[in-house]
Write a structure and sequence with these properties.
Elements lengths: L2 H17 L9 E4 L8 E4 L1 H7 L3 H15 L4 E7 L2 E6 L1 H11 L14 E5 L11 H19 L3 E8 L4 H13 L5 H4 L3 H25 L4 H7 L1 H15 L2 H25 L5 E4 H18 L3 E2 L5 E4 L7 E5 L7 H16 L3 E7 L3 H13 L8 E6 L2 E2 L15 H19 L7 H21 L7 E2 L13 H22 L1 H5 L1 H4 L12 H22 L4 H20 L8 H24 L9
Parallel strand pairs: 5-6, 5-11, 6-7, 11-12, 13-14
Antiparallel strand pairs: 1-2, 2-4, 3-4, 8-9, 9-10
Helix pairs in contact: 1-3, 4-20, 4-22, 5-20, 6-8, 6-10, 8-9, 8-11, 12-13, 13-14, 15-16, 17-21, 17-22, 20-21, 20-22, 21-22
The protein binds one RNA strand of 77 nucleotides through helix 2, strand 10, helix 14, helix 15 and strand 14.
Amino acid sequence: MSLVNDIKLTTKKAVDVLYETSIDETGITVSLTKPEFEGDYTIVLFALLKPLKKSPDVLGNELGNYLLKNHSDLFHSFNIIKGFLNLVIADTCWVNFLSKNYNNTNFGKQNISHKKIMVEYSSPNTNKPLHLGHLRNIFLGWSTAELSKATGNNVIKSCIVNDRGIHICKSMIAWQRFANNATPQSTHTKGDHFVGDYYVKFNDEYKKEIETLIGKGVEKEMAEKEAPIMKAAQQMLVDWEAGKPDVIELWSMMNSWVYEGFAETYKKIGADFDKIYYESQTYILGKNLVEAGLEKGIFYKEDDGSIWIDLTADGLDKKIVRRKDGTAVYITQDIGLAVDKYEEYKIDENIYVVGDEQNYHFKVLKLICQKMGLPSAKGMYHLNYGMVELPSGKMKSREGTVVDADDIVAEMINIAKQKTEELGKVKDFNDEELIDLYETIGLGALKFFLLRVDPKKRMVFNPEESIDFHGFTGPFVQYTYARIKSVLRKMVIAHGSWFMENADANYELSAMNYELLFPLEKNLLVQLEQFPTIVAEAAVYFDPSKIALYVFNLAKTFSSFYTEHSIAGAESEEKKYLRYMISQQTANIIQTAMQLLGIKVPERM
RNA sequence: GGACCGGUAGCUCAGCUGGAUAGAGCAUCAGCCUUCUAAGCUGAGGGUCAUUGGUUCGAAUCCAAUCCGGUUCACCA
């Protein structure tokens, strides 16, 4: 139970007793007291004035006096400024909180929700390597899943591999024609990059063929349709769905190259999945469902044989669900997959982490599932996020402006290496420890950068200015953690671990009085206490940026505190224990918060 | 054209379920390492919260209109 909640509930009770009026505690606004006023938390009285027919001063005084008298364990004093009732929380309350939780490495994790949730993320196409946009997706999906777990849910991380479709056929055609049987091994190229090169090659050839046709006097639109290489790709898709052995063989071989490449990247960035779906396996179920829907009259057939659904009555358009040549489109397999997931896991919620450019697609998908009466429609939620853009605008693979995932990861790690070497603080590390540290910092910087902004908003990445290691960044938080751990190690050496681990027992709570906590100590305690609330909020809104912001602010406050007050050399034994406990809990929370973002923290850096 | 999303400091972003004088980081400038790690700390400058109107005790926050930017409405995925 959070302190803010306690304040709300006691206030509700106070109003009940004092005025015999029942109010909803969610209607009580409790906020942090502004630094320029005395107090920790503030009850905003305006909303209560009318129903209780009181002036701000009278209500504030009556309420304040009641709270003080009946909850002296919680409140120390109060003051009223205009319509704001500022409450000073009792120091014993803070210290009790601290001694109860400072050694709990799971503090912040809670058991308040019990749903079965699938989070689908990453979901790559197997025709090209991952790029920066995928990284935002992956970090967001992974973190969201962990946040959901941290509030008690049973979470299944899943991934749909888009391993079939016309785009895959494009790489296949290009490889057939231009590769001379080259392989990733023979060219020493990472498999996903290798296949991606042929996807690019296809588009180059396609463009050339269009130009040739236009040169012969063919209309542009016609040329795009009739280019031989495109025809070949389309034929290959038909052959694939028909199960033509040589096509299937080529397809499996090229996909296996891509999977090897992806596996390497996933391992590097710490992505993992409990269940992997392949579109090549779900699309048939989708096609069958379309067939069934056609019989039920949910879909209709055009004269050319294509199958559609008319959503104009719902304010949307008509949507194709099967091509005239009988092959499945993107949405066909998504219908199948939704059913598949539900049948196997009976999930309460089915979260799709997919970019906001597909908002319309998911609106349509959910609507189709609803119209088909599928139980899986209910829990569908499209967790959409904004695109990662360059200062010049959208990343475009055709213009070569895509920031490759492997490249940016390698670059971040390299920058971490350079900076670490410049600072020269870990000269005694062996090679293994160094590599580990560079990865921790480099990936920490990258993940934090991508997770610190509201997922819903599109974000700009400027490759010219490399990602910062100062300020609101992963390395700053990691550095704060390393500094805390350094102090804690020294204190354990000086006092012995048993002594420090039982700091609360050695600390005389009774000696506390209000003047004892310095502002920075108090600020830290206030922030530490809020952590579980932040975790719950971030989980509910699927928003890791709330964690990033919180942990940064915590680290910032700690850094000020660290500069202002000595921990190991505190002015009294009491203060030493107090600050030890504060430091210990801050470290624990930083570690937990960063873990929820998928970021490791180093003991030294 | 329809639908949806966004516009806050030079730049990148918080704040948006209405509350006190709108906050961070970067960049700029000025300070701080014989004291627990300076990837740090302290301070300064920097704002018509796109515009206009409305709702009310109170609006960056809610509503409407307008302007600007984006996404989408594919027999691509």
